[in-house]
Design goal:
The chain has 95 residues and is α+β, with helices and mostly antiparallel strands. It has two helices and five strands. It has helices at 21-32, 54-66; strands at residues 6-15, 35-40, 46-52, 72-79, 90-92.
């Protein structure tokens, strides 16, 4: 990652569990050069933390708003970035 990378956090609401959303996020992150992690939340949402240059994060956020075909994204809420967001790789987490 270059020095001008920034970190962002998101919570995605809608039909986003049981539809391959976490794997979609991971594949999209890898494709766009975004590092981070994604997990399901107990309330039915999905939490994502990402680190990349601004242009990649804009494309990544646009993909989050679209989601995979079986999903229905109702909201993408910005949250404070997790300071533990990795600089490389994108993980699907179970925590």
């Amino acid at each position: 990652m270059s020095g001008d990378a920034e970190a962002r956090g998101y919570v995605i609401r809608g039909r986003v569990q049981g539809v391959g959303f976490r794997w979609f996020v991971q594949r999209t992150g890898v494709r766009l050069g975004v590092a981070g992690h994604v997990r399901n939340l107990p309330d039915g949402g999905v939490e994502v933390h990402a680190r990349a240059v601004a242009e990649a994060l804009r494309a990544f956020e646009a993909a989050l708003r679209q989601g995979p075909p079986a999903s229905r994204v109702e909201a993408v809420v910005l949250i404070p970035a997790d300071p533990r967001t990795p600089d490389t790789g994108f993980r699907v987490e179970e925590w």
